[in-house]
Design a protein that fits this description.
Blueprint lengths: L3 E6 L3 H12 L4 E7 L3 H10 L4 E3 L2 H5 L6 E4 L6 H11 L3 E3 L7 H14 L3 E3 L7 H11 L6 E8 L26 H4 L1 H12 L2 E9 L4 E4 L4 E4 L5 E8 L4 E7 L7 E9 L3 E7 L7 E6 L2 E6 L17 H19 L7 H20 L3 E2 L4
Parallel strand pairs: 1-2, 1-4, 2-3, 4-5, 5-6, 7-12
Antiparallel strand pairs: 7-13, 8-11, 8-17, 9-10, 11-12, 13-14, 14-15, 15-16
Length: 367
């Protein structure tokens, strides 16, 4: 297989902690260009990671002949234009979640990429957890039978202290709550359940702002902010299965703290992606004739090549994500977890938000 040459748009902490190292550990990939706001800082990062080219223009990066594919790892409000530029260049794209600032923008990106036949991939990293990959295999094999119930929980207390620098800026109209934890962390839960259980037909939810004043990073000041610190919602799947979900900025517990429970006619599965006491993640299963949940072994095939099982969840999930992205492009295989999944995830989040505002069930798909 040839080497896939990557151009990265974005220079933040997540780019440096997760994206670049995963590409550098991928046998058939090489990061050849990086784009950021500040040229001096971007060149420093390029030097740090031995990346040959640095610039401040999306179009300059995507237009370079040595760039085969584009990785978008910027703040959400920059995703849309960066993705448009990459689509116009005709190059495959990996984009961090959420896909865009609205589900309408997400649909535009999905449709434009599809018309060009471009491979796309979303940064839904939890899809690539070894435990989740094994869970999906068991579901496809019929382990749980007919699905009855789904419970998705995201516990995260990294913003429980109002003095922690907050990367979201306040909306000028603080009378109206805006999505926060729902879009930031709910995106993962939504994607996982749609991937495993099929489409939702309706949702109803409620948001709450628990900390009305926070230290806002961009303004370096304590400011009023009406953002959802926690959201609880219900869902009905087209299959008839029912679901409960929780996302939070203020739920004390392990980080990243995602737990997914699936119950069906033949069995039940619990995936717990919580790094605690040296254990990165676990999968438990139960049957009608053996109702105590038992720890499941995850086969070696679900771990990224060249990684050890005791590495952090970030390394394992990004290792699988990046290797999958690169292999799909180089082999010409059909992609999964692309822009269509990103648009669907945003659509569900938008429906939950509308449900909160209107205080009623919202049907899917949205018109």
């Amino acid at each position: 297989m040839r080497t896939l040459r990557i151009g990265i748009i974005g220079t933040g902490n997540w780019t440096q902690r997760a994206h670049i190292p995963a590409f550098q550990r991928c046998e058939n990939a090489k990061v050849v260009a990086i784009c950021g706001h500040d040229l001096v800082r971007t060149r420093e990062i390029a030097k740090k990671f031995d990346i040959p080219f640095a610039c401040t223009s999306n179009k300059e990066l995507v237009g370079r002949s040595e760039v085969d594919a584009v990785d978008i790892s910027t703040s959400t409000n920059r995703h849309f234009q960066a993705a448009i530029d990459a689509i116009d260049s005709g190059k495959p794209i990996l984009c961090e979640k959420p896909l865009a600032s609205s589900y309408q923008e997400g649909r535009i990106l999905q449709e434009k990429a599809a018309k060009k036949g471009l491979p796309t991939k979303m940064g839904f990293t939890f899809r690539y957890s070894p435990v989740i990959l094994r869970m999906k295999e068991l579901i496809d094999e019929g382990f749980i039978g007919t699905p009855f119930h789904v419970n998705g929980f995201e516990q995260n207390s990294q913003f429980i202290d109002p003095n922690t620098p907050f990367r979201w800026n306040p909306d000028p109209n603080t009378d109206k709550i805006v999505p926060g934890s729902l879009e930031e962390y709910g995106a993962h839960l939504i994607d996982l359940t749609l991937w495993m259980m099929g489409d939702l037909s309706a949702v109803v939810g409620h948001m709450r702002n628990a900390i009305p004043q926070r230290f806002i990073r961009d303004f370096q000041n304590i400011m009023n902010i009406n953002i959802d610190d926690g959201c609880i919602w219900l869902g009905k799947f087209k299959s008839g299965a029912l679901a409960t979900f929780q996302t939070s900025f203020i739920a004390i517990g392990g980080y990243p703290g995602i737990e997914l429970r699936l119950y069906g006619s033949k069995g039940a599965l619990i995936a717990r992606l919580v790094e605690e006491f040296g254990v990165t993640e676990t999968l438990h299963a139960a049957r009608p004739d053996s109702v105590e949940f038992q720890l499941q072994k995850v086969p070696d095939k679900f771990y990224p090549s060249g990684y050890s099982k005791d590495e952090s969840w970030i390394d394992l999930q990004f290792g699988n994500l990046i290797q999958n992205f690169v292999e799909e492009i180089l082999s010409g295989k059909s992609t999964n977890g692309g822009f269509i999944d990103g648009a669907k995830s945003e659509e569900v989040a938008s429906a939950v938000y509308e449900s909160h505002l209107q205080r009623r069930w919202i049907d899917l798909p949205l018109t």
